[in-house]
Amino acid sequence: MSAVTGPEYLRRLSDELVAAQKPVRILKAINWDPAVHERFFKDGAAELPRPEYPPLEYDPAGKVRELQALRKRIRGRNPVERLLREKCDEFATVVDLLAARGTHRFYEISRRLFGDPRDRFPDNNADNLAIARLWAARPRAGGEEQSVGSAEAAEQIRQLCAPVLGDRIQVQERLRLTANAAAGATRVAIRKGAVFSPRQVRALAHHEGLWHVLTSVNGGAQPVLSVLRVGLPRHTESQEGGGIVSEYLSGNITDERYIELGERTIAIDMAARGADYLEVFQYLATRFPPHRAALMSERVFRGGVVEGGAPFTKDAAYQRGYCRTFNFIRSALEQRDLDLVRAFLAGKMSVDDAELVRELVDEGLCAGPVHVPPWFHDLDRLNALVTHSVTMNRFSLHKISRYYAARRRRRGRERAGGAAQSSRAPKSRPTP
Question: N or C: which end of the chain has fewer CB within 10 A?
Answer without folding.
Answer: C
